[in-house]
Design brief:
155 residues; four-stranded mixed β-sheet; alpha/beta; 7 helices
Length: 155
């Protein structure tokens, strides 16, 4: 393998943040979906390589949600924060890595030095608002299953 690429295993929060701040890039490998790690990397100025799925993946319990990448939110950001790549095409992957590293070399004073990103949707007040909305949602009814308390209790 490439000596400049390392799998770090499981890290505690402080170790993870330190590596994120020192890394040129964070490369997604397809799982887990919707992880906070790419957003944490973007907050310390480290770009994220986001694998795209073609065909899109069905996600969630009954497959109602279809996603086109490991991190759909990051997918919308685009370069230089997020560099999307086809996870099933090694040439495309190599090209995106080379392009992202070239951009970093050409424009930044340190590797991974993009402006920090703090998405408004993920601020504490907005997360609380969205959690409250989710607590009021009826997830069972959308799937066609009964949702009244009488159907959800054991008899």
């Amino acid at each position: 393998g490439n000596p400049r690429i390392r799998h770090l295993g499981i890290l505690n929060q402080e170790e993870m943040k330190q590596y994120q701040m020192e890394s040129a890039l964070l490369m997604g490998v397809g799982d887990p979906i919707f992880s906070f790690t790419p957003l944490e990397s973007l907050q310390v100025g480290t770009p994220y390589l986001n694998p795209n799925f073609n065909p899109p993946k069905a996600y969630w319990m009954n497959g109602d949600c279809v996603i086109t990448s490991q991190h759909p939110y990051a997918e919308r950001l685009g370069a230089p924060q997020t560099w999307n790549y086809n996870i099933h095409d090694s040439e495309s992957t190599k090209k995106v890595v080379r392009t992202a590293l070239k951009w970093i070399r050409d424009t930044q004073t340190r590797l991974g030095g993009i402006p920090a990103l703090y998405p408004n949707e993920l601020t504490y007040p907005n997360l609380v608002r969205r959690l409250n909305q989710n607590f009021r949602m009826d997830f069972c009814r959308a799937s066609g299953r009964p949702s009244t308390p009488a159907h959800n209790t054991l008899e």
